[in-house]
Request: fold
Amino acid sequence: MGKPLIHRSPMPGLGLSMGITLTMLSLVVLLPIGALLLKGAHYGLAGIWETVNRERVWAALYLSFRLSLFAALFNLIFGVLLAWVLVRYRFPGRRILDAAVDLPFALPTAVAGISLTALYAPNGFFGQMAAEIGWKIAYTQWGIFIALVFVGLPFVTRTVQPVVEEIEREVEEASATLGASRLHTIRHVILPMLTPAALTGFALALARAVGEYGSVIFIAGNIPLLTEIAPLLIIIQLEEFNYDAAAAIGIAMLLISFAMLLVINLIQVWSRRRIGYV
Amino acid sequence: MSDATQIRFRAATEESPATRWTLIALAFAGLAILVFAPLIAVFVEALADGAVEALRSLASPDARDAIRLTLTIAAISVPLNAIFGVAAAWFITKFDFRGKAFLITLIDLPFSVSPVVAGLCIVLMFGANSALGGWLVAQGYPIVFAMPGIILATMFVTFPFVARELIPVMIEQGRAEEEAALTLGASGWRVFWTVTLPNIRWALLYGVLLCNARAMGEFGAVAVVSGKIRGETATIPTTIEMLYQEYLSVAAFSLAAVLTLLALLTLLLKTLLELRHADQLAANHRH
Amino acid sequence: MHIEIDEISKAFGTTAALHPVSLSIPSGALVALLGPSGSGKTTLLRILGGLEFPTSGRVLFDGQDATGLTVQERRAGFVFQSYALFRHMTVFENIAYGLNARPRATRPTKAEIARRVTKLLELIQLPDIGARYPSQLSGGQRQRVALARALAIEPRMLLLDEPFGALDAKVRKELRQGLRDIHDTTGLTTVFVTHDQEEAMELADLVVVMSMGRIEQIGKPADIRARPATAFVKDFITA
Reply:
């Protein structure tokens, strides 16, 4: 009884495509992640806890998560605004703006890191302006925030854009014929329709930011307890050949990633069940 | 009289011009600060001592070695990931099996794992103090702090790119054309080369493009596994870091400018593909 | 409400969707705008609803110039071809939407809104579907919910764009009678757009045949059948 594992199919290439898929997936992704989990199992929950439960590690995890959350929130608002402007309005330079949204995906993180640092350092273009009002950006948590906003910028825009394109004009018109002001329509009809996609983009931006390394380390200053991010701690442990501690922090971060992946999937299931689309 | 009323005529689905232009201005300002400024800063810093100095620093042995290594890494890891992407998309879209959704989740996994954790995983699996790694080192095939490790790390972080692009496109195209070709007596490979591949070529190119951009620019994962040995395992991004930390700003930014030009070229090609072949690309791009 | 269309024309860019047309719709009538696609019938309906603005001419509601009224001010119950139900709201929330959108001063109490929605669900003979989402309804049910939602705002007139267009033949027949009944119960001036001459003839008190942005003939169904005014009308109603 039950479904067969693989349905019979006249399509060729089952063995080959399955073989390549599973072999490469295992070799490149699953076995290495398994090695980390195995190391963690070997080390034991108590051992992991002992490593993570130190002021410096907590501070780094808390910093990474908190600033990622702020950056993702900023991107949530700015991303929805961008998606709306790019889809709904026609103005000179729209295509360039649209292409520019993808730059954080295309630009290597190390390049973004040194470039943002050059801009926001006390002698940099924006850094000087900020210094005038006594605001220090680079080498503070502000710098980390800006780097994380940069890397997370495209996610919300790119998930929300197709949904804005799909909103039928008639739905907005219906709202107006029922007497709703434009603001009421935006709040009660348009934004709720964008919510699932926006939340998905938000979670993706958050996940990306929590694990981000390259664009952050240059601008962060990396002062323990103040501006030291969690991924950097792993690197420090590795450089001291302290593999157990590196693995413990790695597992903590992996669990955060899995939790966020779960949240993203739940959002999509919820949205599909409720309104029949994602 | 019609002039007086004309002013009030605004479609029910539009915002007022004031709102509209405010939002457009905010979009421009935000992207100017967040995206265009860093972009320009790369070139300003690279050219701080003039174009000659920038070019001279690119001709230095460190820079040349880094460029050579990065190109080699991309030349190996991108085609491997393309093969994986095509195979995985074929397996997932042409066959029905249990656990398909789970398999897709596993393929997507690298997107949600920090590159540093990815590098860590590879070090733990193949590092000299692991069982497998120790044995490989003894046989004369070190993985970590050597090229194979960098390739593995690069493949890990770029793993889903091609598959993610192909799967939605191939789902949309269905199996009818392949089935028709089979009934006409075509062999499996013939069906792939003459029916499937022409249908997915633009999506494949799109995925490869993004995969390549990420492969050449990967920093976190490579920084962990490479050991950053000058002239041996230092890629362009890790060399940028070393130069920057040695306060060789022009040299660092010149190499950064090379990668930035690559990113701009990628975006240009990507935009062209989206303009020309939108119908043959996945509708919803997340990454 | 009496609707007067006075020399209305509409151009999209350089193409004229409506040449100046005039039409008087008596209060409480059930009127069909009949014509092939591109005849301007939907444009005319959207001008009445305030979704489109005429290039020239005037619209009068009960003798008052309504040309400059915004779509919100017109209080026209509009049923869209796609129904345009809000997918993220339940049927109840959809029907209550217009009442909830009112400014606080004129908004009914929660209990009053619930009472009205329940009454409307009874009127469309779907009393038990308030908690469902539009994606869980059949096409015919969606159409009736869209109608109830339009009626909830106590409209001054009812405007329907191809109200039966998306339905199969059997459901279409049933809902025709439903619309007739609702019209007779509410006494609202009702204008619907259709390309189906049988539908127009069977349902409407007054049929307006349109073609190429012009009105070809206005008359009772029997009169139009008996005496088509132009060759176009003759062709169209026998097709």
